[in-house]
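To make this tangible, this section ends with a sequence with its structure tokens:
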Amino acid sequence: MVVVIGSSNIDLTATVDRLPVRGETVLGQHFVQSFGGKGANQAVAAARAGADVSFLSMLGADANGALMDQHLAAQGLSRKVLLRDADMPTGVAMILVDAKGDNQIVVVPGSNLRLTPDDVRQHAGLIAGARVLLVQMEIPIETVEACLLLAKRQGLITILNPAPACPLPPEFLRLVDILTPNESEACFLTGATNPVDAAHRLSTSGADTILVTCGAEGTILSRGEDVTHVPAFVVDAIDSTGAGDAFNGALACALAEEVPIEMAVEMASAAGALATTVRGAQPSLPERGQIDRLCGTGTRRTRTRS
């Protein structure tokens, strides 16, 4: 069982030829409204990868909250607890995607900021009997800490996706078994100028295992003094939105199945790669059969980071 605690958002995505620079207006080609939020994305990603998933999130008492509730009911989650806040709207993300598949994202958290440590403690039954907890940073940091504390006390593997990045003290990171920043988040957390140095520094921060995702450059796996590079799968990428969430959800699924960490990263990398081949966040999250096929037959990049 995988427990995911985190955000739910409505995504507003526009495609553009190129991302605007400061103060610039550009014309878009397409617009779509869809379902997102790192918590919801990762819960759905883990379920599609084959895990039994419980999900806890805070929605607004608005039309977007009702839409999200209806949507998640159809996503194969084993159990969901969607709380409602009467005063704050459901979170929204505004996403720009360029012709190369790169993106810029602005998140307005809304009701996600009302998910409290008390809410987590009141629903501690979601964690009981699970194997893996997956949590992100689109909810208050004190709520994230409450999640990690409960999970550690019950012997779960704890995964923290530190996105969006914010300073994290060592005592906080000691509650984390696996930290999964992307390249920019890892550099922000450490002050390093490249992801390899960032991985080295994070390996002494308190978390047991560091996975720095670097897009087409693959993943850096750091465990103490041991740093290895996992090459990315080669795919025809059109939109990187949701790729990190696909990676984290599939990783949690693999670890819940007691797959060794190296094999779990392979599965997660395949899921992340597949997510870049479809536009949008949740629409791009792959099913288990797709992941297994890419793991078995996919072409890898061989260039390593230095």
The first strand starts at residue 2 and ends at 5. Residues 2-22+30-297 form a domain with the UDP-N-acetylmuramoyl-L-alanine:D-glutamate ligase fold (CATH 3.40.1190.20).
